[in-house]
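Subject: for your reference before the review

Hello V.,

The reviewers asked for a structural picture of the protein, and I figured it would be easier to keep everything in one thread rather than splitting it across files. Below is the amino acid sequence we used in the manuscript, unchanged from the supplementary table.
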Amino acid sequence: MKKEDCFYLGRIVKKYSFKGEVLAKLDTDEPEIYEHLDAVFLELRNNLVPFFVENSQLHKSQLLRIKFEDVDGESDADAIMKSGLYLPLDLLPKLEGNTFYFHEVVGFKILDENFGEVGTIKGINDSTAQALFEIDREGTEILIPMNDEFIINVNRKSKTITVRVPDGLIDLYL
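And here is what came back from the structure prediction:
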């Protein structure tokens, strides 16, 4: 399984017991969806390796307590510490309306109600306080904040996102 075919679910943050159980911090608003997994991919040495889950349960809201098959002691648990957890993209719950996953809108066109076609989304920068659409307009990069008040419509069929940004924001880049 390739990383681009998967989504990041969370990270193993600490050991839970001497029997090899671990706690994973989940990066989701709905951790209960992932409480009873059969298997996950762990990122080990830049490779995704499948691990089968013996049992799992939520532990203090955002933490998932997991017992993996063949992880039977503290040294086994140490070997997977800080590993990222990944699942195949097809296990993501489907979103509707103006909500979307960052990976799903790469390649969509951005249309501004006043400006017209802005360009194509080449990525999402979520390393800042406000996530940003990274838009390519004929070789020029334009950054637009992913603010709910700016996003008017997400059309999955036509692969477009219509926005209404403050006057002059797009012109700053041109």
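For the response letter, the relevant points are probably these. The mean pLDDT is 92. Helices lie at 74-80.

Happy to draft the paragraph if you're swamped.

O.
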